[in-house]
């Protein structure tokens, strides 16, 4: 397997997140195509219309969590 880095990627996203009493965090990230964001020389702008993640604390180890 070969991995090649073509160019750095730049993503601007807004985020909404919910924080629950048990420590779980759920976040939704979204890209607003109407935003007038600055362009940077040598950086490729990447479109990510919608993304999300959830961090769930490990009940047996406070220093660990599951991310999905």
Descriptive labels:
68 residues, mainly beta, two-stranded parallel sheet, 47% strand, 6 strands, four-stranded antiparallel beta sheet
Short description:
This protein has 68 residues and is mainly β. Helices cover 0% and strands 47% of the residues.
Helix/strand order? EEEEEE
Structural class per helix/strand content? mainly beta
Contiguous uncertain segments of 5+ residues: none
Query: N- to C-terminal separation?
Result: 25 Å
Strand content: over 45%
Count up the domains. 1
Mean pLDDT value: 83
* Main pleated sheet: 4 strands, antiparallel
Assign an overall shape: flat
* Count of discrete alpha- or pi-helical segments spanning 4 or more residues: 0
Strand order of the main beta sheet, please? 2-3-5-6
């Amino acid at each position: 397997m070969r991995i090649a880095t073509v160019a750095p990627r730049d993503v601007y996203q807004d985020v909404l997140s919910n924080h629950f009493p048990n420590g779980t965090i759920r976040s939704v990230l979204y890209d607003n195509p109407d935003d007038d964001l600055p362009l940077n020389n040598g950086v490729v702008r990447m479109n990510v219309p919608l993304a999300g993640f959830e961090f769930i604390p490990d009940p047996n180890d406070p220093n660990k969590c599951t991310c999905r």
